[in-house]
Structure prediction request, 868 residues.
Amino acid sequence: MLKEGQIRIPSGCAISGIFSRAGQRFGGRDIIKSISIMHERSNGLGGGFAAYGIYPEYKEYYAFHLFYDNDAAKEHCEAFLNRHFVIAQTSEIPTTRTEGVIGAPLIWRYFVLPITTRLSHSLLDEKEYVAKCVFRINTEFDGCFVVSSGKNMGVFKGVGFPEDIAHFYMLEDYRGYCFTAHGRYPTNTPGWWGGAHPFALLDFSVVHNGEISSYDANRRAVEMYGYKCTLQTDTEVIAYVLDYLTRQKGLTLREAAWVIAAPFWQTIESMPEEDRVVYEYLRNMFSSQLITGPFSILVGFEGGLMALNDRLKLRGMVVGEKDDRVYVASEEAAIRIIEPELDSVYWPKGGEPVIVRLEGGNQIGGV
Amino acid sequence: MAAFDFYPDYEVVRNLDRCIVCRVCERQCANGVHSCLEEKNVMLADDSQCVDCQRCVLLCPTRALKIVKSDNTYKQNDNWGKKAINELIIQASTGSVLLSSMGNPETYPIYFDKLVINASQVTNPSIDPLREPMETRVYLGAKPAAVERDDRGRIKNNLPPQLKLSMPMMFSAMSYGSISYNAHESLARAAAELGIYYNTGEGGLHEDFYRYGANTIVQVASGRFGVHKDYLNAGSAIEIKMGQGAKPGIGGHLPGRKIVADVSRTRMTPEGADAISPAPHHDIYSIEDLSQLVYSLKEATEYKKPVIVKIAAVHNVAAIASGIARSGADIISIDGFRGGTGAAPTRIRDNVGIPIELALASVDSRLRNEGIRDRVSVVVSGGIRSSADVVKAIALGADCVYLGTAALLALGCHLCRACQAGKCNWGIATQELELVKRLNPDIGYKRLINLMRAWKHEIEEMMGGMGINSIESLKGNRLMLRGVGLNEKELEVLGVKHAGQ
Ligand code: SF4
Ligand code: SF4
Prediction:
């Protein structure tokens, strides 16, 4: 049986996210409730969560979450980590036996910083150095998979229904200012934990519902810039496209959204000259990063969350707000179940990014 | 010796019950096939002069004529086929190099016909092009390495000059001289109305057509015919022709009989004298020389026009393309061995070069491996016969295609492959006024527009089926293709999976 990455597996899905603009940290209970109401949209073959602001005591360190198939893989990978990073803390990620969650790998967490001399010899900037190390582990180390690698954040995912995965990881005990969740409905059985979502690189995490038709065009373009699509999933390629546009090309997230869910030419033509020039430029310059086909995505990043639909809005996505909380989900019910009294509810248009950030700049892990 | 060298390949069949001896065929055939035996009031035909251009067949008012493949046969021999024998006989009689025209007609594999296209089912909706916008706009040109911003942080337009096309198709280089004034006019007007480009070919630009400059690509070939400063500045892009798919490695030869007064003025070569473009550019013996020519053309046009470098698809095309991408060129154009020509030595046309599908796939992969695919656009030609071929070429990695033969077919060409004789009965590959008149540009340009619009609709249908609503997302999207009946190596070069995988 081929595992995810050796074969491309289309999936349907549910997504949900909660964000506290004030940077207040809250437990994992709400997000679990929200995603589990959309049980029908998953089939028990993949679920996962990304949580931001959960490691304030190590917020300067890259938090690496790793899956290992066995001890030998772990030893091999740890030797690599030791060569490239100063490891401030190593621990097994706490889990609890859960019915319906099977085939779990060894799951470990490391708080790391690049070794200064190695970093300076590499002539790379720090994030690029970390990203390169992640790619190496994911492509060259058999039985090892970096699940997440950002600061003050982590991804918890596996094969099972999302609520069972949450129970397995005891997600209720984590407190963060932002959570996103994913329930997966793949069209056949991947049975591999690394293939579940969210997908994360550095502090970017992506949950996604849809099946993009531009996949191979996007994949071949990002692979040209050094990314390696090891999972062959839409989520992975979307994460790389965003990372490329923002970190490597210096676009703002909003500009990146205009690239991947670009307005139609007819819309661009009717814009005021000043805007038209920019939109036309972005579509021309980054034509290979345009994403077509249905998607709704939630992009978590340090201090913020972006929700975005494909240009035709071929997948449902609702945004609700209440006080400092912003909720985004595939279905309104998934928001109402945790917050029945919303201040506002709206359905962003196709290609219209909704970007929320912590108030007063970067106060991650505060409060 | 025998009365004649061999029995003609094609026979003119006249249904005498239908023939009314109107003598239309006689007037229409510039090859002098038909004649009238007046005393008996009956039409005769000299099959040996017939090139099967279908002109008389389609103009005969009673449909009395057809051309059939002769059933006269040599003794069965799987090694010495009829073509091989006949060509040898001609050479023994004449002692000369065989000449042919149009693209390689031999039985090499056609990879386009072994690739099939994907469509959405269930997991991903198809898109109806009649209800939703379906975008086919394409830009050709180099992309800068970095985004720049002004003091206010707004993105600056730092793109070098680009060609903007309403659809990923252009008319490829066909020189004035090799084809007629009316053919050029049809191409220019169609390109202008469609929002695409046509290419002057190597024979300069007739003064009447300067007004279509916004939709013109001017070509500079090794003979430098018709090249001067105004010419370079007349079009929207400049193409350096290094090679041609139909005749890689050799130059061009326009026979003196096609160099009539107007052609001579446009080409800046003497009337009636053969115009021969040398095999190489004599100022380009290496890649660094090419770069100098690219930049001198850019200097001459103040860096306002993208420069295209056109090469023939040959064995090491990927390495050559990679060199060109680093030479300052904005666009690479690759012409496959099925690409047409007004005249080429038969042996070269039929034996030199490689299929465009393989050349394109390996160039695209190579440029990506080297991380320089964004530096250039890739345009392919030589074997595009339908909108499906266009879709497949783009999914393999092309930005755009050039259409030559397809455009001529729309203008009336019936692929008789006798262009080198200069007596095209359809008014295309000829300079004889009587024949040129047969192609009415008012009709010709409309037929080109019809063809392009039809193909565009079909491309949109296929894109919609794949769930793709913008052509950018098809470019290089090889997962949308599968091979049928291809071996491992072919799949590897094409970078596609086999159907069923
Ligand atoms: S050359 Fe053309 S016009 Fe002349 S007989 Fe043959 S088919 Fe008819
Ligand atoms: S252009 Fe004219 S001469 Fe050439 S192949 Fe077509 S019909 Fe024949």
In short: Residues 9 and 70 of chain B are 5 Å apart (CA to CA). The mean pLDDT of chain B is 95. Chain B touches chain A at residues 120, 123-125, 127, 132-133, 135, 137, 139, 143-144, 146-147, 154-155, 157, 159, 162, 368-369, 371, 373-374, 466-470, 472-480 (CB under 8 Å). Residues 10-96 of chain B form a domain with the Alpha-Beta Plaits fold (CATH 3.30.70.20).
